[in-house]
Model the fold of this input.
Amino acid sequence: MTESRERDVTDAFVRLASSLVQGFDVVDLLSELTADCAHLLGIASAGLLLADERGVLHVVAASSERTRQLELFQVQRADGPCRDCFLDGAPVSAPDLAGDADRWPQFAPAALEAGFASVHALPMRLRDDVLGALGLFGTSPGGLDPADLSLGQALADVASVAIVQSKETADQRTVNEQLQNALDSRIVLEQAKGVLAQTGSLQMDEAFTVLRRYSRDHNLRLTAVAEAVVMRRLPAQQVLGQVREAGGR
Done:
């Protein structure tokens, strides 16, 4: 491992660990996790699914909009590696999606059309409970090195603990409440992205970048800013204007 990559890995774990001892925004944390996975594992992008208390999967974070759309397609069609990973509680590997049409007759063609040629799915776990799945997407066929898969699983495990702000005494009701909070926060974030995208004629990826930049520039929680935009307490033009002004300096 190069010195630069070792430093990046350390930084990723420090961010995750810090969330256990101080207030944090769960959607921002998980979005950061998907971006870290893409960077550290040398893949095109990553997406994260969490299950609600009924066991229904929802898209919570993704490092790109096309990944979010593909994960959403997977959830809606109940067909794909992340769904299988969640149900079985075990990693799923598909190094060449072109040969997996029989395995996932709906997901595989959709993934290929979106430009992805390989995918690996890792379970999000808290003790014996499977909370969801982390999807790792590549644009060319090929497997991931065992060390990279171990790193991805370690990041997913630490994030799982952070999501529920877990203590050994946490009961299932507490876990369900924390997961629902994460899912609700994601809905608000998507609504805010839509408002900014429409107002500023932006792509959804660009709207997310603007939203995150504003929250960090003002030391505010990402979800709080998103909610303020959706409820019109914070005008979209103000967010767009301040971020553009800052970017021009």
Notes: The chain has two domains: 3-164, 186-247. Residues 166-170 have pLDDT under 50 and may be disordered. The domain at 3-164 is CATH 3.30.450.40 (Beta-Lactamase).
